[in-house]
Amino acid sequence: MNTKSVLAGSTSMVATPSSLSSRAMTSRHRSVGLRQRVERSAALCRLARYYSRMLGEQVTPRRTLLLTHAQVAVWALLFPVAMPMAARALCLLWAMLAVRQCRSQA
Q1: Which of 70, 72, 46, 69 is nearest to 59 (CA)?
Q2: What is the extent of the structural domain holding 48?
Q3: Using an 8 Å Cβ cutoff, are 67 and 49 in contact?
Q4: Structural domain count of the chain
Q5: FRET partner for 12 with CA separation of 20 to 30 A, picked from 30, 76, 88, 103?
Q6: Taking the C-alpha atoms of 84, 97, 75 and 46 in order, what is their torsion angle to the nearest 10 degrees?
């Protein structure tokens, strides 16, 4: 088997930059579509109405996701379980970033 035939056979497997960007765009499009579907879900809309009543201001489904994310991060930090200090530090970092993201979107 010569090198030319091996290279000729393998060129079909090489990804071109245009195919990579189209796959990245498709993946990005899917994630945006997923977020929109989650934001339109009935459960999240009910939770947004609940947060609106509790906070006394209009809460969007996007902000509801951010509030829930921050709550889960803080809960993971404070949950009483034996965890290495490195894991606690990561949970603290996660909680700080989640709360910061929630505040910046307010």
Answers
A1: 46
A2: 16-104
A3: no
A4: 1
A5: 30
A6: -150
